[in-house]
Specification:
The complex is a heterodimer.
Chain A: H1 8-15, H2 23-31, E1 36-40, H3 47-56, E2 60-63, E3 70-75, H4 84-87, E4 91-93, H5 102-105, E5 112-115, H6 122-130, E6 136-140, H7 144-157, E7 162-165, E8 179-185, H8 206-226, E9 227-237, H9 246-255, E10 258-261, E11 271-272, E12 276-277, E13 280-281, E14 290-292, H10 294-297, E15 302-309
Parallel strand pairs in A: 5-6, 5-8, 6-7, 8-9
Antiparallel strand pairs in A: 1-3, 1-4, 2-3, 9-15, 10-15, 11-14, 12-13, 14-15
Chain B: H1 4-7, E1 21-23, H2 26-40, E2 50-55, E3 58-63, E4 79-82, E5 84-88, E6 96-97, H3 99-105, E7 113-115, H4 118-125, E8 130-131, E9 139-145, E10 148-156, E11 159-162
Parallel strand pairs in B: 7-9
Antiparallel strand pairs in B: 1-2, 2-3, 3-5, 5-6, 8-11, 9-10, 10-11
The chains are: A alpha/beta, B alpha+beta.
């Protein structure tokens, strides 16, 4: 896809939050596919051994500087899905930016964790590995068709500690003070990926963004309600519009007793959250949110916040 | 004809449909532990941090903490699955451990395994049965390749019947894959 096909309304919106001199680089990065990447499932394989086995098969790998289980694939002789390592559940093909939210979640053995929008299970399986397959993960996915992919991935990677539920995510407000940690990788307007895909690029509209934002805030309210006191809540999206990112966090800070904790990733170029948008001044702590711009990080666009319930 | 998944109520058709989970009685637990011990030499101690539960016709394995979620079903939590399926037909004569279960716990087995030779791996991963000039000891086998647990098979005289789920076959394997 060419950059001139990105909707003007979207570009005008981005101009409000990104310096003009970066705009061309951003537009180019938005339509390019990032390097293919995967991570090693530590429940099944050692990072070093898996890397060596794949290199022996002709894969040229670059270790991710910000995640020790992750690798970019520079060149390959076949599909990763056709390797013995994939069959054995030693690897999971996953976008680099999608590996980020579980890092500040800091899942530990015997935690009780809610993954509020779980399918296809990329992050659920990543959390399960961090927990060494102990404790409890509730992996919720309301869409019955997407549950199949979630279950398949759990089985292939050997995950035992997960309960799949099929509730509307807003249900979890009925389970107050239940979880130590919550991941809400929210169903968003997909601005980080949709303009690469001819089939879905036409879906984007301002109304789509506003509709997504409404659902995202409802889901975040449910997440905060179901968190125990002191619990960590990670809110993330792969979209760019502030309506679905900083504005959601600003609203949560006003309505709930939560704080934003600073998050940093080693060797990854990240930006702070914006604190002013369309003339509205946001809570100053919103700058602790993390924005990942595709032209700066060489990964997909991403937004991430770590909230702690007081 | 319903697929295996539909047949076993793996994914309830209606959102309101509920599949019942039941914990095992001591007697049932003993049957399961004895089965794994007798067939594969799996010591019951390896399951000490887990629970087996009945779901439909099958037996599933999960963590002890997973079971806490069952209490929330009455409040509207719609549980789809708890842990992974471990054993089909657990209290019949034709009980069978699943590939997914064996890929996790098969490394502790001390008997009834078959080590694939280099030239046998690729056909087995493609879903093919293997044939031998001499008969193997009849019954279920844990299929290994070097130190890796590939899955399950059934030895019937001169044949090793492939038990890898069809969904896991990969048709585009080539020699580089392994």
């Amino acid at each position: 896809m060419q950059t001139h096909q990105i909707p003007n309304v979207f570009i005008e919106k981005v101009k409000k939050i990104l310096p003009e001199k970066e705009l061309e680089d951003f537009k180019n990065a938005l339509v390019e596919s990032p390097l293919k990447s995967f991570r090693v499932n530590s429940l099944r394989g050692e990072v070093k051994a898996v890397k060596e086995a794949l290199e022996a098969k002709g894969f040229e790998l670059i270790p991710m500087p910000f995640y020790k289980q992750g690798f970019f694939v520079k060149s390959f002789s076949m599909s990763l899905g056709n390797t013995l390592e994939h069959f054995l559940g030693k690897i999971y093909v996953q976008d680099a930016s999608s590996m980020l939210p579980t890092i500040p979640l800091n899942a530990e053995e015997e935690d009780s964790i809610l993954d509020l929008a779980a399918a296809p299970g990329s992050k659920t399986t990543q959390i399960a590995a961090d927990m060494n397959n102990t404790g409890l993960i509730i992996a919720n996915e309301p869409n019955q068709k997407r549950i199949k992919a979630l279950q398949d991935n759990l089985e292939r990677l050997g995950i035992v500690n997960t309960v799949i539920t099929r509730n509307d995510g807003r249900f979890f407000r009925k389970m107050p003070e239940s979880f130590d940690k919550i991941l809400l990788d929210a169903p968003c307007s997909l601005e980080g990926t949709m303009f690469k895909d001819e089939k879905i690029k036409h879906k984007w509209s301002h109304n789509f963004v506003i509709g997504s934002a409404r659902l995202e805030y409802d889901l975040l309210k449910a997440a905060i309600t179901s968190a125990k006191q002191g619990a960590t809540i990670i809110y993330s999206t792969c979209t760019i519009s502030p309506e679905e990112n900083e504005l959601i966090i600003d609203k949560a800070l006003k309505e709930f007793d939560v704080r934003v904790e600073k998050v940093s990733f080693e060797n990854l170029n990240t930006s702070q959250g914006i604190t002013e948008y369309n003339g509205i001044e946001l809570d100053k702590d919103v700058k602790r949110c993390v924005r990942i711009w595709p032209h700066k990080s060489k990964t997909g666009a991403f937004f991430l916040t770590k909230l702690v319930k007081e | 004809m319903a697929t295996q998944i539909e047949d076993r109520g793996f994914f309830p058709d209606k959102v309101s449909e509920r599949v019942e989970y039941k914990t095992l009685s001591k007697k049932e637990e003993l049957i399961i532990y004895n089965y794994f011990e007798d067939l594969f030499g799996l010591d019951r101690q390896i399951f000490k941090n887990y629970e087996f539960i009945k779901r439909g016709k099958d037996l599933w394995i999960c963590t002890k903490k997973d079971l806490q979620t069952l209490a929330f079903e009455s409040k509207g939590l719609k549980i789809n699955t708890v842990g992974i399926r471990a054993l089909r037909n657990p209290f019949d004569d034709n009980k069978k451990a699943t590939t997914n279960f064996i890929q996790i716990f098969g490394k502790y087995a001390t008997k009834n395994s078959y080590d694939l030779k280099d030239h046998e791996l690729l056909p087995y991963l493609r879903g093919q049965d293997l044939e031998f000039p001499e008969p193997l000891e009849r019954g279920y086998k844990i299929i290994k390749y070097k130190s890796e647990i590939i899955g399950m098979g059934i030895a019937l005289e001169n044949r090793l019947i492939n038990q890898i789920p069809k969904s896991r076959f990969i048709k585009n394997w080539n020699l580089k894959s392994i």
